[in-house]
Amino acid sequence: MYRACLVFEMSPIGDAMIRKILDNIYRYSGWLAAVFLLLICVLVICQVGCNLIDRVSALITGTAVGLTIPSYADFTGFLLAASSFLALAYTLRSGSHIRVTLFFSHLGKKVQRILEGWCLFFAAVITCYFSWYTGYLLYESFIYNDLSPGMVAVPLWIPQTAMLLGLVILSISLLDDLFCLVFFGTTSYQKEYKK
Fold first, then answer.
1. What is the pLDDT of residue 193?
2. Which residues contact 101 (CB under 8 A, 6 or more apart)?
3. Looking at 94-172, which runs of residues are DSSP E strands?
């Protein structure tokens, strides 16, 4: 995992501990996203297996067994949303988000740092607002007992929790990078600061 502020490693123990905790949060978020992607693959493979058994049964006996995983499309959608949102912070920290630097690379270092700071600030504000709004949406889903419309009615606050968690972690990551840029001149995703 790439470190946003290498200076933290030379700081007192408390700062190094905070840096380690934050890096672990970002890393575990990425791993959890990978687990959800793996669950999508398992679910789809199981459904394909059920379809295959159903076809073979129809060919042999003339009638299909009717094997299916109820609401598997809903479950894969929930898992995909969880995976996408939980991977955002890890992807940002590893420098894997798409960045268009054609214009940016022709600017001076001071202007680059100002624009980078503005972009991080703007992204952090939007992501914090989105996190707050998603938290409110989750609260309403919980209070009103909103359910998914599929064959298996899942309380919507359950998949929304993973979405909120991913957004909160992304907000923390953006604020972390903004702090590091302002005070140390580095971010986690700039190639010249990667290990």
1. 41
2. none
3. none
Q: From CA 25, how far away is CA 3, in angstroms rounded? A: 13
The number of beta carbons lying within 10 Å of the beta carbon of residue 63 is 9
**Sequential DSSP letters for 36-71:** HHHHHHHHHHHHHHHHHHHHHHHHHHSS------TT
Higher-pLDDT residue of 115 and 132 is 132
* Mean pLDDT for the stretch of residues 41-57: 93
- CB-based contact 178:100 (threshold 8 Å): no
Helices H / strands E in the chain, number of each = 4, 0
Q: Are 187 and 95 in contact (CB under 8 A)?
A: no
Alpha-carbon distance of 178 to 195, in angstroms, equals 19
pLDDT of 4 over the 70 cut: no
Report the pLDDT value the prediction gives residue 157, as an integer from 0 to 100: 96
Who wins on pLDDT, 65 or 5?
65
Least Cα distance to 39 among 4, 72, 65, 11 occurs for 72
Q: Rounded distance, CA 8 to CA 184, Å?
A: 10
Element (H, E) at 139: helix 109-143
Domain ranges for the chain: 6-193
Query: Please, which residues have CB within 8 angstroms of residue 44's CB and are 6 or more apart in sequence?
Result: 72, 76
Paired tokens of 168 = 């909160």
Question: Average pLDDT for residues 69-89, to the nearest whole number?
Answer: 94
Residue with tokens 């479950």: 75
For residue 170, the Cα-to-chain-centroid distance in whole angstroms is 7
